[in-house]
What we know:
219 residues, alpha/beta, two-stranded parallel ribbon, 38% helix, globular, S-adenosylmethionine-dependent methyltransferase activity, Methyltransf_11, SAM-dependent_MTases_sf, Methyltransferase type 11 domain-containing protein
Amino acid sequence: MVVEPNPSLLAAARARIGDRAVAYHAADPVAAADLVSGKVDRVICNLALLSFRDPEGVLRAWRNRVKPTGRFCFSLSGTYFNVLRDQVTPQYVFIQELHRQGLLPRGLPSVERLPNQRSVEGTLKGAGYKPARYEVQEIPTARPETEPGGELYNLMRIHPALPGKDHRDAVERTLAALPAAAPAIASRGARWQVVHFVAQPALTPEELLLERFGGGPPG
């Protein structure tokens, strides 16, 4: 089952995944948990969790939809995550440059103020999970970031950083601003990183007993 509140992104997922998914739903991630009957082996959330209004609420909503031996797997962009204090992505540098130039009213927080492994694992525990795995993946790029075909260039064509009269105008404004950011991206040694978390439901003593002797936890 695929859940995506944005209709255009849901259509893109449908085109890519096709019949491998049993259903597609344009739904809020919390409400979508009620669409699942029974329990599932895996929930996968790709580069979206921290963009939700209430990430812990989303985690809580899905906790009782994951089997005790199942996994909640999610990835976070290194742009909005503190991997290490000196590691930033080209997108992070570009947004900061747009803010410095007065083109964006707000920049991103300093790296030290971004979520990190400890804070995200604390959120997981607060939502009823136990962290099982953490991994940092570096994504190599073959072309200069600010030129056509570069990762940052391609990303800004989909999700422009600057506002505009419409999507096309926003993309044109954003791409026009890219070349000026190239020196800053190079000087910061910016590189793309994605972090991956895997968590399992942390069963209560009652749920452990029910799982062992009564056929599984309630819900």
